[in-house]
């Protein structure tokens, strides 16, 4: 975790140089819309980043999987002057490269690469780059690179939108995670039993985090997982809940009226319930409640909330006899 905190500090310290890139691209292209894209973890990151930019800036922002933009640009391109933010840890994933290439021929579309590899093919194909050199990681599974790139994008959104509250909160995050002594214990707490399914729930900006959480347990521990918006889970999927189901909720401020009741219901159906964030008094009956800073809004909370889940993935995988850094069937870069 110390390493992750250190990388975040590097990102925070470089914020002015990142901001200069945003301003240059946005004004030169007279940009009206932001589209965040990527594959796998990087697409989930895109989804949370788009939610923050929609909330904090005046730009309309959305996320689209790179493969969908590639195959159905007509369905996703709005015709507005667009900045396509292409996120890829490696900068060499095929779909991302093809999207960047296709964008060169689209009128009014400019491209920005967000990557941990500043000298990659993607950066050569994009108009500009935001890179985290210290974000490189050996593991096939994205952990530090995911949170660092999301941190970079959250800082960018908070600065562009001049949201001082979010900026102050983001400034303090590296120290907060460095001092989070309970983090490993939180991740370990429910990792001692085998589950048939792990269900990850998150609303709004936390949906991308829930998607990433679901992917982490799949990749690290070969664990079947499902992801839903919390209240969607009531509309059918809950019929599979039993005592071998672990339900992880990334609790949101906006959901505080509904999510506690949903968790009570799932507990009554026999599920094991883990709530990350939200008030302890609202979730008193769950199997585990992991408190997060009260001040953190839904848009920044996910970044903190993902950390115990990453820890869970590591401990759960090792206990089940898997190497969490080397998932079967997967390589660091997926190329077609
Ligand atoms: C994204 C990705 C990850 C996946 C695995 C392989 O690559 O597909 O989502 O977990 O690590 O790479 P990238 O485009 O961000 O390099």
UniProtKB/TrEMBL annotation:
<keyword id="KW-0677">Repeat</keyword>
<dbReference type="InterPro" id="IPR046348">
    <property type="entry name" value="SIS_dom_sf"/>
</dbReference>
<feature type="domain" description="SIS">
    <location>
        <begin position="22"/>
        <end position="166"/>
    </location>
</feature>
<dbReference type="InterPro" id="IPR035466">
    <property type="entry name" value="GlmS/AgaS_SIS"/>
</dbReference>
<feature type="domain" description="SIS">
    <location>
        <begin position="186"/>
        <end position="327"/>
    </location>
</feature>
<protein>
    <submittedName>
        <fullName>SIS domain-containing protein</fullName>
    </submittedName>
</protein>
<dbReference type="Pfam" id="PF01380">
    <property type="entry name" value="SIS"/>
</dbReference>
<dbReference type="InterPro" id="IPR035490">
    <property type="entry name" value="GlmS/FrlB_SIS"/>
</dbReference>
<dbReference type="InterPro" id="IPR001347">
    <property type="entry name" value="SIS_dom"/>
</dbReference>
